[in-house]
Design a protein that fits this description.
OB fold (Dihydrolipoamide Acetyltransferase, E2P); globular; alpha+beta
């Protein structure tokens, strides 16, 4: 399967710029996720790859094959050989499962015997062989989603493009579908671009993730890199739950920084490669905050503080507590409950990420609440 190369893509809708010179490379055979809030440009990027949007500049290549270069090349959608699964599935209600899956092969005038054989193969692949004669209204949402995926794979695609394919499923089925998709993609080996605003979805299915906002990419990395080492405050705050606090950097030597944080009596010395001083923002995940329980053999460190629990919630596999450090609310999670109304906590320096406040740059255009999306299926 080919790799995917997007180079300096810009796309405008009227006075709104949806993509700002976006460049990305998706490796052969990987699941690459475009993650971000509504209006960030992720669907516009997907439709540009599929050929349903024409960018205003830049180029798109599938391996060595250029499918778009502004002013020179614009391969029609039906000749890009992309399999696309839409959020709404876009399967035809008047056709059986087998007829839906066979449709792209029929368009390509594939011989009947070969067409029937391929339909059986992909229905086996998506575990729907027993439903070939059924109609969409007789299927569950998860089964309809698999019909759409089977149709996208019927004519082996160079690129599989998935636009929030699990958003219409309930939480438990969504989780099962993610696991199933990852196993299927590994079996098929097709290069896949996956669009979602769901962080859990992105972290669980992706080989790599591009976090987007307002038509720009903030960070590309593995799920672990994105979560554990966010490149900036937007990524830290958008992916997962993060406690964001204000701090003053009083010393910095390029390997460590000394932080003064409102609510903490003792300064914290944390790993940090920047030498800038002054106001910064720090991020720490709720699960990384240490809870020191009374009666423990090892006492709390000197920088520990006792805080009052303002809110608590039981979430099945963990407990979530809201406390206050200085004037800032802080979320703490633990698998073991706390019996009284106070917590003694400390912020472990290796788990603190420091972000310096940059001077304001050019103001970005406000993204629309909904990206412009075509609805016709591609085969």
């Amino acid at each position: 399967m080919p790799s995917l190369h997007l180079t300096n893509l810009t796309k405008r809708f009227s006075r709104h710029t949806a993509l700002h010179e976006l460049s990305l490379t998706v490796q052969d055979g990987e699941i690459f996720t475009l993650l971000g809030p509504s209006g960030c440009g992720k669907s516009t990027t997907l439709w540009s790859i599929a050929g349903l949007h024409q960018p205003d500049s830049g180029s798109i290549a599938f391996g060595d094959r250029v499918v778009f270069e502004h002013g020179r090349v614009d391969v029609e959608p039906e000749h890009r050989n992309c399999g696309v699964v839409f959020q709404s599935y876009a399967i035809w209600p008047h056709m059986s499962v087998a007829a839906n899956v066979a449709y792209p092969l029929k368009l390509r005038k594939t011989a009947k015997a070969q067409r029937e054989r391929r339909v059986r193969e992909v229905l086996d692949l998506v575990e729907l062989a027993d439903h070939a004669r059924a109609y969409p209204h007789q299927l569950s949402g998860g089964q309809q989603q698999r019909v759409a995926l089977a149709r996208a794979l019927a004519h082996p695609p160079d690129m599989l493009l998935l636009d929030e394919p699990f958003s219409n499923l309930d939480a438990k089925l969504r989780d099962r579908s993610r696991q199933w998709l990852k196993a299927l993609q590994a079996q098929v080996g097709v290069t896949t671009v996956f669009v979602t605003h769901d962080q859990d979805e992105a972290l669980s299915v992706s080989d790599r993730i591009a976090v987007m906002s307002q038509g720009r990419v903030h960070q590309v990395g593995t799920p672990n890199e994105i979560y554990e080492h966010p490149a900036d405050l937007f990524v830290a705050d958008f992916v997962g739950t993060a406690n964001i606090l204000t701090a003053i950097v009083t010393e910095a030597d390029g390997s460590h920084a000394l932080l003064r944080i409102d609510g903490l009596d003792q300064p914290l010395r944390v790993p940090h490669t920047d030498k800038r001083l002054g106001t910064a923002r720090i991020c720490i995940r709720p699960e990384n905050i240490d809870i020191h329980r009374s009666g423990s053999v090892v006492g709390p460190p000197p920088d520990a503080l006792t805080v009052t629990v303002e809110n608590r919630a039981y979430l099945g596999d963990h407990y979530r507590y809201t406390v206050r450090v200085g004037a800032s609310p802080v979320t703490v999670t633990t698998t073991r409950p706390v019996d009284d109304g106070e917590l003694t906590i400390s912020l472990p320096p290796p788990d603190i990420r420091v972000f310096h406040e940059e001077p304001a740059s050019d103001v970005l255009e406000e993204a629309p609440s909904n990206e412009e999306n075509p609805h016709a299926p591609v085969h």
